[in-house]
Amino acid sequence: MNENANRITLQQIARRAMISRGLEPDFPTALLAELKEITVPATYKPEMAKDLSGLRWCSVDNPDSLDLDQLTYAEQLPDNKVRLLVAIADVDALVAKQSNIDRHARQNTASIYTIAELFPMLPEKLSTDFTSMRLGEDRCAVVVEMVIDEDGAVQQSDVYCATVFNYAKLQYESLGAWLEGNDSIPLEVRKIEGLDDNIHLQDRIAQKMKDLRYEHGALEFETIEAKPVFDGDALSEMKAELKNRAKSLIEDFMIAVNGATARYLEAKNFPSLRRVVRTPKRWDRIVELASEHGFSLPEKPDSKTLSAYLKFIKQNDPEHFVEMSISVLKLLGSGEYVVEIPGSVSEGHFGLAVKDYTHSTAPNRRYPDLVTQRLLKSAIAGLPVPYSVEELEEIAHHCTVKEDDVRKVERQVEKSAMAMLMKPRIGEVFDAIVTGASPKGTWVRLYHPHAEGKLVSGFNGLKVGNKLKVRLTEIDVEEGFIDFERVN
Predict the structure, then answer these.
(1) Quick check: is 350 in a domain?
(2) DSSP states of 14-54 as a string?
(3) In 10 A of CB 267, how many CB atoms?
């Protein structure tokens, strides 16, 4: 293989990884033929939807994102209450159930964001144009309206269809820097009269919603996203990105929306596709990890005390909060999709400390969200449930399995990219933390750079969260293997 890191090699690795896991990197011919028949964005008949295009909606996403799923807007009400509106792109308006476009989306279940290339769940003619909340365009949307009290609790909510208009395409980094007081107001905000006050109102209510979730035991994590920096086709570095105030704002609103949509479907006596994170099986190791840092957790899993522990680490050992977040997340385990029948007891989401939770806010990027949207629109219109319980259960299982496949593909390409960058550093010694320990092997993550690899010697007795020094011994770019040995 060419020693120079390059985008083409990573693209080839990504495609091979997808095919090996039953994912489709290319759109089939039948889908492309069907796509040609879609020539304009969807519109609503006036009697079917509200016209909310006059509200000062805005989107917040990464600077290069074109598949925009949500717009937000807030307005002050009496008694310190706030009306919060979140508009979700109506993808179902153009993607019919069991169409060829729908079948491909159902197979892959998500857009796959690899470092080298994006493999969208929906054709870009839709996801970045006709069903995207594009700047300066009217779009069909499923709107979730919530009234938030001064404590951050959702007092009431409703779901309906509406036409909306994106007045400002905002970016996480610049908006977050402004909200945190580290930079001036973004030009995109300044250009729209009154948008600065509206964003501040959104930010204030998001903070209250977050605080209330933490009181109920929601877990605060801080992880690292590695973003590639290319010089032409050559990969020059992997830049670490941390969460900021703007990302938190959108995250808090999406959590609220996913709760509101779950409750709406239940009130309409509709089944729903729920997102759950079960009570952690590795709680004993989390307890042990906390005790090593002078903090006592109960024997039985409890999100409130775990939340308090994470706050304790953030306040007393902020330099290692990211590593602790990663360790606890690994031990909590991944989420899954389940079908909720009206009247049954919800398993809930342990990490978010919520009982009612769907995935509904990203129908351009995730298939469960598109399924939920179809359920919502049928409930709004008073139509029958568009899926049988058996069909929903099959979708839930398939999406859970494929979510793991998608994550492994994205991780594979990230590991190959990092292997490319680390290859010249074989023989160097690094500070590291154990992020995985099982009979299958022991994995460590370096503090800097944030590379992860397998510990091939000296791993006896190590547990998740242990710190150590390691030497880089071997690299396999094709497989994304980075091997270390322990240094005493």
Answers:
(1) no
(2) HHHHHHHTT--SS--HHHHHHHHT--S-----GGGSEE-TT
(3) 12
Question: Based on the domain organization, do 238 and 299 belong to the same domain?
Answer: no
The pair of structure tokens assigned to 352 is: 């978010």
Residues 85 and 214 in one domain: yes
C-alpha neighbours within 13 Å on the C-beta side of residue 374 = 18
- 300 and 175 both lie in a single domain: no
Residue type, 97: K
* pLDDT tens by residue, 358-377: 899 999 999 999 999 999 99
d(CA 189, CA 194): 9
Q: What is the pTM of this model?
A: 0.86
Regarding whether 151 and 208 lie in a shared domain, the answer is yes
Report the domain count for the chain: 3
Phi-psi region of 343 (alpha: psi -120 to 50; beta: other; left: phi over 0): left
CA–CA gap between residue 483 and residue 384 (Å, rounded): 55
Q: Are residues 313 and 451 in the same domain?
A: no
Residues present in the chain in total: 488
Q: Are 275 and 359 in contact (CB under 8 A)?
A: yes
Q: pLDDT tens digit string along 218-230?
A: 666 565 666 666 6
Is 69 contained in some domain? yes
Q: What tokens appear for 375 in the block?
A: 């359920």
Range of the domain at 153: 7-257
